[in-house]
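Hey, resending since the last one bounced:
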Amino acid sequence: MVSRMTTDKDVEKMRVAGRLAASVLEMIEEHVVPGVSTERLNAICHDFIVDDINCIPAPLNYGGGPNQIPFPKSICTSVNQVVCHGIPSESKILKSGDTINIDITVIKDGFFGDTSKMFFVGEPSVLSKRLVKITQECLYKGIEQVKDGATLGDIGQAIQEHAENHRFSVVREFCGHGIGQIFHDSPQVLHYGKAGTGMRIEEGMTFTIEPMINAGKRNIKILKDNWTVVTKDHKASAQWEHTLMVTKEGCEIFTLRAGESL
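The structure tokens again:
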């Protein structure tokens, strides 16, 4: 089943969920400073999501299985070489020069808003600045391909070409996904591929694009907690994410932040 909005009421609920998810990233920025723990950032976001914007934090107690506990926190905090799904912790203290991806998903009136942003802690290195910038450009170049009648391969090729032209690599084990009243739905939106291939994109479809780009090789490993994903070569990784809906001529991005424009 592919996530698709079929009524104006559903579209408006997606707009609200997306805008509220974006507001969490806007709120937390001033708190991302040297000396703060990722658990403190989680607590601030949790309280804001529940008390201020009256939403449910979708990651909290999500998933779980035979060898995996449900995700124990309300946000993902992926620092430096962590690719995605970093678990907030009291022992993880941010220091100047770190980069961190904060990934937010909220549920409002049964609809999901999913978005992430990179933050610099103190003064970043030249490489970190470049990786974060190129990764955001990869997201935007993927979004530029979205319109009724395009293919998912168009998105993948645009992202892969931009990353590899700047000597970075694309993580292939994780991808964007359909989203609406289900957190992770069809289609799977790969961040690599060949233009003109894959599923045809149709008006009304809703999904995320969330490229994970590595400074070194694309290879990853999953830590013993069965959640945290890191680069195998310990080099930095970056990610940006938006939730959007396909329109005739392009798309509507539900998770745009204040001052952000494509």
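The helical segments are 8-28, 38-52, 126-144, 152-165.

Sorry for the duplicate.
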